[in-house]
Amino acid sequence: MKIRIKILLFCVLSIIFIGCDQVTKDIAKHNLVEGMYTSYLHDTVRLIYVQNTGAALNFADNLPPRLSFWLLSIFPLVILCYLFYYAMRNARTMEPIKMLSFCLIFAGGIGNIIDRILFDRHVTDFMNIGFGNIRTGIFNFADVCVTSGVIGLLLTRLITYPKEKSDAKSV
Length: 171
Known about the structure:
alpha+beta, globular, 171 residues
């Protein structure tokens, strides 16, 4: 795949993923009642509106506002800028699935940072999945993007590592 197409796809998909994240959060804000959930598929999926000022599973929720802003907004933004730079710089040699994984991580991270900056550190979460008492934390579309991207990177590493190992032995 040509480098220009990879870069264009990365940018367009990032905009689409960020847009989907922001639209689904806006729908949740306007249609769900805070603290009450709506259940689907025999309580496998729950939609519940929550404002989260911490990271995953409310981690670092009690930080002072200034520290929280720097630690949960600016620091991740710097890392995401580097990730974008890395993906663009290596687009020529990067496999499309790896490029997509970086795109998902970038878009998901930016989606949550947009919330943190625009809504005074608050990120809208609204999805919960589980069976009985075994449930996930409450999350959003951006979290799904980041998680999918990380899983994609892990899978590409698991697939390419045995090949790299066997190539190294044959040298």
